Amino acid sequence: MAGAFPRHEKSLEALRNRGRYRQLMPREGHDFASNDYLGLAGSEVLRAAASDALARGVPVGAGGSRLLRGNDAEHQRLEAEAAAFFGTEAALFMGGGFNANQAIFSALPQQGDLVLYDALIHASTHDGMRLGRAETRSFAHSDTDDAARVLRDWRASGGEGQVWIAVEAVYSMDGDLAPLDALMELADATGAVLVVDEAHSTGVFGDMGRGLAHEIAQRPNVLSLHTCGKALGASGALICGQRVLIETLINKARGFIYATAPSPLNAALVRAALQELRQNPTRREQAWAGITHAQSEAKRLCGLGGFASQILPVVIGDDKRTMALAAAMQGHGYDIRGIRPPTVPRGTARLRLSITLNTGAGVITSMFETLARELEARP
User: Can 27-42+281-377 and 58-279 be said to share one CATH topology?
Assistant: First the structure.
């Protein structure tokens, strides 16, 4: 008997045949897949913070949106501390990076404006742009000259509104760094606003882990986004920038206005994570020791190079071969995931190796030794 949703079944079968079918998997093996870069998610630091917050009477649930009764003192303490830490006028705590990007790009750029975005920008930014009213144009990945060209062409065609340049500080699938100095020069020269998604740089890059854009974050034409579910080990997101932009989000961002507020308990955990960044530089130093070791072993054992961050992409190309390699590595006890289109461009399916404090140097070396054998056995 045919199922109740034959078109959905056909679509899923097509994904299976192309090697693009997704399914949930348990946490098993050594961690080379998470974004828990500083090992905070399961740390005693956050366990103690949770216990302390509960003892102080911090609620587990918010009970409503921030604009109703869901606005807790813990949210406001976090926002004040985050603004001070990241060096901005104000900050806004939201439930996650995805809905924070949706809020930014649906509510801040206005009709007649232009969102000029890097070709490899995150899916959440695309969703936000679709919900917004501004025009959108892409520029070649990390190519500031191309961004300037696209902006000039837009002005020449009659575009008169505000320009918002959208980039990631560290790109989540390639691990490369945005040319922020050149982009800032472009923004200053053209009156544009630079929007920097620091999701994969927060905690890892910058003074005290304050991100790659920390030195420019205080400028009036910069808006930064720091997610809390990666290096900070909790969940949520902090949008940091000029107070007028934060207040606009509070008043116009549907993802903020109509959403139940993030857990006040989670806000307490993020506060503790930021305090750990301020007070314990050793954690970040240890993370970078592991990252440097991984980059060296990737080169020595697999001939892989050109890495700039804790994200080491091993581009395979073919979807099915990528997933076969991922499965083989999982079978050896290494939690490595395959990334396929549409998350990455067609023909660039890859293993995304993430280096965190959850794995030591010996495990990193043994993983690359195993990967070298598997790459040779599966040409």
Answer: no
State CA 319 to chain mean position distance: 23
C-alpha–C-alpha distance, residues 211 and 217, integer Å: 9
The single-letter DSSP state of residue 209 is G
- Which one from 99, 142, 172, 263 is the annotated catalytic residue? 172
Q: Catalytic site residue 172?
A: yes
Is residue 74 among the annotated active site residues?
Answer: no
Contacts (Cβ under 8 Å, ≥6 apart) of 273: 40, 45, 46, 203, 228, 232, 233, 234
Domain limits of the chain?
27-42+281-377, 58-279
Establish whether 200 is a catalytic residue. yes
Sole residue written with tokens 């520029």: 139
Three-state DSSP class for residue 162: coil
Residue 354 annotated among the catalytic residues of the structure: no
CA 370 to chain centre: 28
Q: Which two tokens stand for residue 107?
A: 């509510």
| Whole-model pTM over 0.85 | yes
CATH: 3.40.190.10, 3.60.21.10, 3.40.50.150, 3.40.640.10. Which one for 58-279? 3.40.640.10
pLDDT in tens, 307-358: 999 999 999 999 999 999 999 999 999 999 999 999 999 999 999 999 999 9
Show Cβ contacts of residue 328 under 8 Å, excluding neighbours closer than 6 positions: 374, 378
- Spot the catalytic one: 35, 99, 101, 263: 35
Topology (CATH) of 27-42+281-377: Aspartate Aminotransferase, domain 1 (3.90.1150)
